[in-house]
Amino acid sequence: MDKSHYFDHVCNDTIPTQPDEEDVTALDMVSEAVEEIMDNVKNAFTPKDPDERD
Known about the structure:
The chain is mostly helical. The protein has helices spanning 6-14, 28-45. The longest helix has 18 residues, at 28-45. 0% of the residues are buried.
């Protein structure tokens, strides 16, 4: 079975990607959410007073 044109025809027709969004992946939003959660956890457990850090 010849699959040489599989990606040219099947995938391009089934994965709708806007031309200006081709550099965005499905996991970008997950990565951003995890980064925000980690920042919130860090801020919640970091003392506001520098003397309390030790």
